[in-house]
Amino acid sequence: MNRRDFAALCLGGSLAACTQDPVPERPPNILILMSDNHSWNHLGCYGDPVVKTPHIDAVAARGVRFTNAYCSAPSCTPARASMLTGQDIWRLEEGANLWGILPKKFGGYPERLEAAGYLVGFEGKGWGPGSFEAAGRARNPAGDKYESFTDFLAARNLEQPFCYWFSSRDPHRPYDNGKEQAATVDQAAIDVPGYLPDHPDVRRDMADYYGEVESFDGDVGRFLRVLEESGAAEDTIVIVASDNGWQMPRGLANLYDFGTRIPLIVAQPGRIPGPRVVDDFVSLNDLAPTFLELAGQAVPDEMTARSLVPLLESDAEGRIDPSRDFVVTARERHAFVRQGGAGYGGRALRTDNFLYIRNYEPDAWPAGDPPLYGDVDAHQLHYPSPAKLLLLEHHDHPEFARYFNLGFGKRPAEELYDVRQDPDQLDNLAADPDRAEVLRELSERLTEYLKETGDPRETGAPMLWEGGEYFATRDLKPKPSVEAIERLGLSEEYSYID
């Protein structure tokens, strides 16, 4: 019996019958609709006037839109591992890497929801890319895989709550699925961010990306229609999010907002007051304890994330929880793009006013070794990446040299950005004597959090992600495309394992 049926009984039956112990509220269904490599600001409801996302905007119009949502890492595999486990990436050993493993000892919300009676499944990538088999797992950490939401619902007992994760490939490069939509994008109206040159190749690249965002929005609309037709919409919490930021230079695999800040929208009619806009700093990791609390399950001590239920069930807007005034993000190995497969360690702390970044290997190339700079996609230059190719081809031209250095150049041990005055995070103030006190305070706050949560980068414990196997073996000896070879004078093959 749901709440609506119980209320009807009280209205139509005797008052005495309704003064007995209330029927326990049924745990909600959970539907996660996730895009892939999609920055927070590229949706209509987040203020982008060009991209058309009516289905996602409609979810925001009846739910909660978070303005300060971040992933744990600007990289697919660790971001998804953290979401599943509710833990920061440095606590997950080899789980901190792209194309690695998530050790079997790290459980997540899927198993716990199944133990509580939920049917759990996913479609698309789920956890990954990587090898769950190499970790001794019988299935993807996201649960059982289904070909479609319809197939999943058909496998469900109608009285059984469910948790389903649709993990889209859009707008991941190469941009294929949104070509029809991209043709309708007004390239002249696109707002090119300050870390990219305003050039036709960049606008075309962004238009193709927007086309795939619009393709994902179409998927959201289809899922919501299936949910409505199933009769389960009223009992289902819908989450729209991405796993990390977009694939442009200074985005994916970077600790700037463009790599770590994501859209996050949560809605359920009758349970979550909306529409509301919430400015608390939240993390994709927070979904794991949120789902467990919604299911009436205990949140295990190893989860460093915090449930969003108090924010979701509040009537308030803006900043609700004063303690949610910062978020910490991290990166280790993204693609296999340095000799021997070395990663690039970094940690960041983001507040309302500042972004502080700590780079542990300032002598290494943050974008990967030249000439491929493979932590900026396309990582092998094997498929189209117009903005990246433009900057590599003209790296020493006065018009492009600054943008090349922002996206591909080496970085100092510390970076500090005043995001109020510099939202594109271009002007590093770490050496500014007027900001020395701010730098010190943020550095100490970051170190304190990392030590409290057991980060080997700060505690001196073994960094078990180093040397972890990389399961996309084709990347060890990358082969650029013919176009990249001709435009950049590249060799036909490179090797990172010589």
What is the count of DSSP helices, taking H or I runs of 4+ residues? Answer: 15
User: So, CATH architecture of the largest domain?
Assistant: 3-Layer(aba) Sandwich
State the fourth-level CATH superfamily of the largest domain. Alkaline Phosphatase, subunit A
- The amount of beta strand, in percent, is 5-15%
Largest sheet: 8 strands, mixed
Total domains, how many? 2
CATH topology of the largest domain: Alkaline Phosphatase, subunit A
End-to-end separation in angstroms reads 65 Å
CATH class of the largest domain: Alpha Beta
Helix content: 25-40%
SSE arrangement, N to C: HEHEHHEEHEHHEHEEHHEEEHHEHHH
Look at the structure and give the mean pLDDT. 94
How would you describe the overall organization of this protein?
The chain has 498 residues and is of the alpha/beta class. It has 2 domains: 25-324, Alkaline Phosphatase, subunit A (3-Layer(aba) Sandwich), CATH 3.40.720; 329-488, 2-Layer Sandwich (Arylsulfatase, C-terminal domain). It is built from 15 helices and 12 strands. The strands form 2 sheets. An 8-stranded mixed sheet has the order 4-3-5-1-6-7-2-8, sandwiched between helices. It has a 4-stranded antiparallel sheet with strand order 9-10-11-12, with helices on one face. A hairpin with a 2-residue loop joins strand 10 (346-351) and strand 11. The longest helix is centred in the middle third of the chain and has 31 residues, at 200-230. The chain starts with a helix and ends in a 10-residue tail after the last helix. Residues 1-23 have low confidence and may be disordered.
